[in-house]
Amino acid sequence: MDQYSPYQSNEDRYENMEYRRCGLSGLKLPILSMGLWHNFGFIDNFDNARSMLRTAFNCGITHFDLANNYGPPAGSAEENFGRIFHKDFQPYRDELIISSKAGWGMWPGPYGDWGSKKYLTASLDQSLKRMGLDYVDIFYHHRPDPETPLEETMRALDLFVRQGKALYVGISSYSADETAKAYSILQDLGTPLLIHQPKYSMLDRWVENGLLDVLGDKGIGCITFSSLAQGLLTNKYLKGIPENSRAASGRGNGALESGSISDSNLDKVRKLNDLAIHRGQSLAQMALAWVLKDERITSVIIGASRPEQILDSIACLDNKQFTLSELETIEKILKD
Ligand code: NDP
C-alpha cells in the first residue's frame, strides 16, 4: 500500500460479496463484516490497520464495527478509524455502515459505565467526535445492565435515532428474555430493534437456546462476534501458540484467556481442521460458513491482525454448503 496515494476502491467490490437483509428491516449487511476490537488501537501499526480496512472494503465488506472502548487504550480504535476514514473513506460514506457501542466501563465515576441515559448520551457524543462523524449507522447498548431500568436504556437509544445521531439501534449480549423486552419497549417508542450482536461459534452455542428463535420470530437481525473463537477455530494454534498471535499477546478475553487452548479443545480443532481440508477450505472458512448456514444470521463480524487473514476468511463464500453427514461429523467432534 502506498500510504500517500489517494485510495481508490476496487470497482468490482460488490460482485463477489453476498448481502443479507437485517431481519425485517430495509438494511442489508455483507455476510462478513469487519470488527475493530483488536489491532486498530494506538499500540498497533497504523498502516496495517489502514491496509486491513482497504482490503475489507475492496472485497465488498461495507460494515465496520466499533465500540467506545476498543483500543487499547480505550477510544483509540475509534480515533484511528476516524483518521483512516478521513484519509480514505470519506467519498464512500454512503456506501458504509459504521457502528459503535457503549455499555462497558469507559471513564471513572458513576456515569462512565453500564446503561444510564447519562452515560450513553455522553459516550455516543464522544464516539462521534473521535471518529469525526455526524452520525453512526448503528448504535448498540453493549451489554445488559441489571440495575438501570430497561426503559431508560431503550429510551436513550430511541432518542439518538430521533436526534439523527444514529440511524438504527441494536443490543449486544442480551439474553432471549431481555431481548424480547427490549424489542417491545422500542416497538412502543416507534424505533425498531434492528439487530442483536451475540457471541456465537462452534465452541460457544448459547444463542441456540432461545435467542435465535426470538430474533427469527420478531424479525430482528443477528450479527455474531468471535465466530473464530478469537483465532482458535483457525489453523493458527494447531502446533502450539505462535508468537504473532492474540493468545501470545495476552490480549483478548473469554476463549483465549480461560484456558480454552486446552488439549481437549485442540483435539477438536485438529479434527475440525481435517474436515475443513476434506471440504477444500481452511478451518477459518469452515467455521464462518458453519455460522452462516443459519439464515437468521445476517452477518459474522470477523477480526483480523493482517490483510491476508481477511482474504482467507472471505473465501468462505466459495463453499458455504454442508452435507448432512458433514454436519453430523461436526456435532460428533464437538461432543466428544
Ligand atoms: P474472531 O473470532 O474473528 O477472531 C479474530 C482473530 O482470529 C484474529 O485477530 C486472528 O488472530 C485470527 N484470525 C482471523 N482470521 C484468520 C484466518 N483467516 N486465519 C487464521 N487466523 C485468523 O473475532 P474477534 O474476537 O476478534 O471479534 C470480531 C469482532 O466482533 C470484534 O472486532 C468486534 O467488532 C466484535 N466483538 C463484539 C463484542 C461484543 O461484546 N459485542 C465482543 C467481542 C468482539 P491473531 O490476532 O492471533 O492473528
Task: Characterize the structure shown.
- The protein has 336 residues and is an alpha/beta fold.
- The chain has a single domain (19-335), classed as NADP-dependent oxidoreductase domain (TIM Barrel, Alpha-Beta Barrel), CATH 3.20.20.
- The chain has 11 helices and 10 strands.
- The protein has helices spanning 46-58, 76-89, 117-131, 150-163, 176-189, 211-218, 246-249, 263-278, 283-292, 307-314, 324-335; strands at residues 19-21, 28-30, 32-35, 63-65, 97-102, 136-141, 166-172, 193-197, 221-224, 299-302.
- Strands 3-4-5-6-7-8-9-10 form an 8-stranded parallel β-barrel, surrounded by 7 helices.
- Helix 5 (176-189) links the parallel strand 7 and strand 8.
- The mean pLDDT is 95.
- NADPH dihydro-nicotinamide-adenine-dinucleotide phosphate binds next to strand 10 and helix 10.
